[in-house]
């Protein structure tokens, strides 16, 4: 129990840090007020990811975060990412997989790609995100405590456990950033692909 409970709590903390509402739980970085949602391309089919989406997401990352940011995607997004192609005239070439005999590349534009079932499903906003998690603050107010009691359910031969963990999280910034050059394309350390329905 001492080994498995912390792992289970860490799993649920990750869920809250990614998609939490901020009400009675941490505010997640996916869909937060500071996030920039990159719209789908004109005529883009539902539940697809195209290279133009990825390029535009990269361009909306805060420049100082480009060397720290990582991509996070849903497992549903893997087929879309690994079969993306760059159109060149009447031909084209795959973007990610060039050698099907070796392990698949787990980077996009040189930044790590993390696959997480905690990301949104394919087609929903947040199924692909490009984030710099140094802009996400975690407040760990109390170390996890675990206690047990055989008294409460003694008559049923049961043991009760109590776990206490006080933690919170939220993005460090509260809104997207207007670039110094006056561009209308705001920047953020939290960039995600908008809904494609």
Overview of this structure, please?
The protein has 197 residues and is an alpha+beta fold. It contains three helices and ten strands, in the order αβαβαββββββββ. The strands form three sheets. Strands 1-10-7-2-6-5 form a six-stranded mixed beta sheet. Strand 5 and strand 6 (111-115) form a beta hairpin. It is globular and about 75 Å long. The N and C termini lie far apart (43 Å).
Q: In a few lines, what is going on in this structure?
A:
With 197 residues, this protein is an alpha+beta fold.
Secondary-structure map with pairings?
Layout: H1 4-19, E1 36-38, H2 51-59, E2 70-73, H3 78-82, E3 85-88, E4 91-94, E5 107-108, E6 111-115, E7 128-131, E8 136-149, E9 160-171, E10 190-193
Parallel strand pairs: 1-10, 2-6
Antiparallel strand pairs: 2-7, 3-4, 5-6, 7-10, 8-9
C-alpha geometry: globular
Residues in β-strands, percent: 25-35%
Helix content: 10-25%
Main beta sheet, described?
Answer: 6 strands, mixed
Mean pLDDT over the residues: 90
> Low-confidence segments, ≥5 residues, pLDDT <50?
none
> What order do the strands of the largest sheet run in, or round the barrel if closed?
1-10-7-2-6-5
Query: Rg from C-alpha positions?
Result: 21 Å
Instruction: Determine the number of helices (DSSP H or I, runs of at least 4 residues).
Output: 3
- Whole-Å distance between the termini? 43 Å
Structural class: alpha+beta
What's the helix-strand series?
HEHEHEEEEEEEE
Number of strands: 10
